[in-house]
């Protein structure tokens, strides 16, 4: 009888501990949830406050720039003037961009406006290496050049790995002083929109010499016995063609 009573007491103690543990876990979850809710509400309020401040700053900046009925702009007391905020600077930048855009539209409507070269040409020339000018001249005078990708051979191309990409003889044919930089030259010209890596191949016979070059053979050896050669081409974009005709003296251009 005493043993049963002892077992009953142990069961009550276990049940009490279990209930206490459940209540503590529920309390902790509730507190965490309340804290998260409070944080979210605080963050939302902070964002709303910043948005209202930014809106007020924009409105104040616009009002400060708007002349009164007499054509005078409001004056600001130098003692109470505050440093220009980032929002006001953004308003200035936007207004400047719109003035430049409107100026372009006015100039485009001017029939007396001369046929000047594209304004980006001068900026592009500043971003070219001398060897890159050689590459552009060669592409402008000789046309598209063959290049190849070398990939590992897998059925349907699934899991195929690139062993050599856009391999060409462009640097050698252009007479570059630093042929080992040809890939960087071509990537920069592609970045500037002057050169395209095209999927369209050139005449098949033009790949014979390229495909026995050491760089291509090394890539094929790396790709293994089932190496696959993808024939492509490197050519001037339409923008690049216009750029070369405007910026370089080319044979037969009549200049």
Descriptive key words:
flat, four-stranded antiparallel sheet, 11% strand, Translation Initiation Factor IF3, alpha+beta, single chain, 255 residues
Task: Give a concise summary.
By secondary structure, the chain is of the alpha+beta class. It contains 8 helices and 4 strands, in the order H-H-H-H-E-E-H-H-E-H-E-H. It has 2 domains: 1-66; 121-247, Translation Initiation Factor IF3 (2-Layer Sandwich).
Can you describe what's shown?
It is a single chain. The chain is an alpha+beta fold. The chain folds into two domains: 1-66; 121-247, Translation Initiation Factor IF3. The protein has eight helices and four strands. The protein has helices spanning 2-65, 86-108, 120-125, 130-142, 170-174, 182-191, 214-223, 238-247, and strands at 145-151, 162-168, 195-198, 228-236. A four-stranded antiparallel beta sheet has the order 2-1-4-3. The radius of gyration is 36 Å and the shape is flat.
